[in-house]
Amino acid sequence: MTQQAASTQKLQVFSRGLALALSLGLSLASAQSARQSTLVIGGDFSDLITMDPGVSYEFSGSLVAGNLYDTLVIYEGNDLKTLKPRLASSWTVTPTATGSRITFKLRDAKFSTGRPVTSADVIYSLTRVIALKTPSSFLLTDVANITAKSLSAPDAKTVVMDIPKTANPNIVLALLTFNVGGVIDSTEAKAHEVKGDFGTAWLKDHSAGSGPFMLNRWDRSAQVALDVNPNAFRKSPSIKRVILRYMTESAVQQSSLNSGEIDVAWNYTPDAFKAAQNDPKLKALKTDTFMLSYLGMNSAKGMPFEDARVREAVRYAIDQDGMIDSLLQGLGRKTQTIIPIGLAGSDPKIYYPNNVAKAKELMKAAGKADGFSVDFLVSTGSCSGGVPCQDLAAKIQADLAKIGIKANIKQMVNSELYTTYRAQKAPLIQADWSPDYPDADGNGTPLSDYAAKSLAWRNGWDNAAAGKLAQTAAIETNATKRLAQYKQLTALLAKDGPYAILYQPYKPVVLQAGISGFNRNANGDVQFEKISKK
Amino acid sequence: MLTYILRRLALMVLVLWGVTLGAFLISHALPSDPAAAAMGNNAREEQLADFRERNGLNKPLATQYVIYMGQLLRGDMGTSLRTQNGIVNDLRAFFPATLELTLVAVLFALLIGLPLGVIAALYQGRPPDLLARTFALLGGATPVYWLAILALTLFHERLGWLPGPGRLDVYSLAPPTHTGLVLVDSLLARDPAVFWDALRHLMLPALVLGAYSAALLTRMTRSALLEVLSQDYIRTARSKGLTPARVIAKHAIRNAALPVLTVLGSLFGSLLTGAVLTETIFSWPGIGGYATTSAISLDFPAVMGVTLIAGLAYSVVNLLVDLAYGFFDPRISFS
Questions:
Q1: What are phi and psi of A313, to 5 degrees?
Q2: Distance from C-alpha of A329 to C-alpha of A275, rounded to nearest angstrom
Q3: Predicted-assembly ipTM surpassing the 0.90 threshold
Q4: Burial grade of A437 (CB within 10 A; 0-12, 13-18, 19 or more)
Q5: Which of A243, A309, A409, A505 could bridge A362 with an S-S bond, Cβ 3.0-4.6 Å?
Q6: Per-residue pLDDT tens for A374-409?
Q7: Which of A220, A432, A452 sits opposite B93 (nearest CB)?
Q8: pLDDT tens, residue by residue, A389-398
Q9: How far is A7 from chain B, CA to nearest CA, in Å?
């Protein structure tokens, strides 16, 4: 071999080596940048059953749908009282002879498929929900009172919705912020239709929306991967991919957060949350919810809580502060009326401070000075705020014992618990309620109106005045008048109702300190596109 | 032998039919309403009625069973009440993950349990035996839940030797699904990086799941071997001048294999269906988690599907074990 040939060969070897090193370096760098631009959330997402915004009715499903699809209007961030434009750039509400008419003007937006969002897509999306009778379709049919005939499109960018007098346009707008109002690319859905299913089977694990993300892949019970939608008008500046990683156990989420495998942990227990608050590497957020944890007292004839004074005694006997401070480690707020803090109509007044002496007086006045024994139905799992239900039940049992009520705890799996409750057969129950849409009526009607066959009915509490008030307030369009009606209703329920409100839980979310822009609102929405990672 | 297998297969069909009937009656005896469980706490009464109608839950129980069996004979296990997916599809998605985990767990159990048992028997009463028996005791008595959390905290969080929960790293892309076994699929896709990742993810859960079985196998192997070693033919073999190693390998182990095999068969069956806790903690997307969620949400068709596949797994493993008897002991005939 000549010297020249040898040196050429050396050069070749060197350049190959350099190329390899460079490519390795690049792939390492790209792996590094993949980590930088991927947000990993670990949590219990076992309630996820579909990605279809019209069908999904579960917390995790709504969380994902909110990032895959856009609704006409939306509540942004933590302000759940001011309606903001989303796909509709503007809207007007005008009274008509039969009720009111809402006219939406659509903005220029594109689906992830590249097609423009038109009024035909909006109408298709809403009518398919009505036709499919999905778990959330009653919001459109029963609450908003709309049918396929109520919707029309004068042009490609205008949607007209006619609603009858029996529905409140403000409530209709509020419930359109929920994923039931998510707009689907109708051309895409129709292309995947099987036996008239409006593409439901396909949309279960595919996406065709205009949201900031699109579905890459859903490995059932393992993870959901969302990729950025290049056509979206809500742009994500730094996150390119979001992964929801299934991790049921809080202990496992802790371990994965500590090892840096996940960026956000979704389900922490109060104790673990307290520890995270003192860890400088983590951010521990108490995020709002509209949930209420309450005691339901069966007030039907012949039931132990038939006498209003006994129900009031229970409310005075419950030590809410002790429950929130020690059991929940602060992961709950004190409230005593049926409309959660954060919704217009919520009442901050403390109606029944913890007062055992007063409670005993009331028991005596009701002729139950010696107390009584009652079955106390409790779920087997974890209660809102992450506290084990049995711990909560034991605390309530101890509080009630002070006024002579012997509560016999009966633990049941949720399905059995709610079957009993629905059959009006639960004498005393610890349960949760979360409104279906962010409006006082989401609690007002089910908790007050016996005829609505919901909570008031399950607790055998038939109060004509409360039912009437709830119905009037639901359709009142004057905001001031409406607030006054809810004030009256909440006061009535606080005095006479079949509930002892225990607390309004926070949902604990723990993140790596380097995550910014994370916000989870009381509806459970997180705008992934606003998050960035250091 | 063929007649024997056919007879056993026929018997298996009968057993599985019994399983469907039992599972159907038990799951419908619960005082809970599947419609309410599927539609949630807030659902209205009309919604529940509609759900019952659509899913045939308002028909008489006997009619429901006849419809179910009719579907089953056509290879359709029905539709999940909770997810509205076909049960067959669900099982196809979740079962391979459990099978893969169980196979590796059994492999670990064999690799640990058999040698330990042999050593314990050979050194009966001496320190190696004591150590092996301590392991057997601990392995049998430690709750899986606790062991899993401990292993995860130590090897993943503290030492960082092994990856955390899940079948693959968050940043790994799963290989195209052929068999559902990631180890096999990654090899088919010629993706060694994913294979290595999947193997590392399997280590902790398989060790945790296999620990109990390893302990049981150690004990079984030890006692079976001790019994064999006291037999006359072993003395004869020894007196013929065979080395101890040959005596063990040629005469003892083969004869001690039968009881061990029986235990192994039932272990494999129970692991396959009993991996619930391990799967929960390691976020393993297997049949265990699916069964739990389905049972909690009163998803009868899904519970039936899981029960059937569990019954099938048990029956098949039992058959294989029985057939293996013949291999280890030619005196056993299948006529």
A1: -60, -40
A2: 11
A3: no
A4: buried
A5: A309
A6: 999 999 888 998 889 999 999 999 999 999 999 999
A7: A220
A8: 999 999 999 9
A9: 36
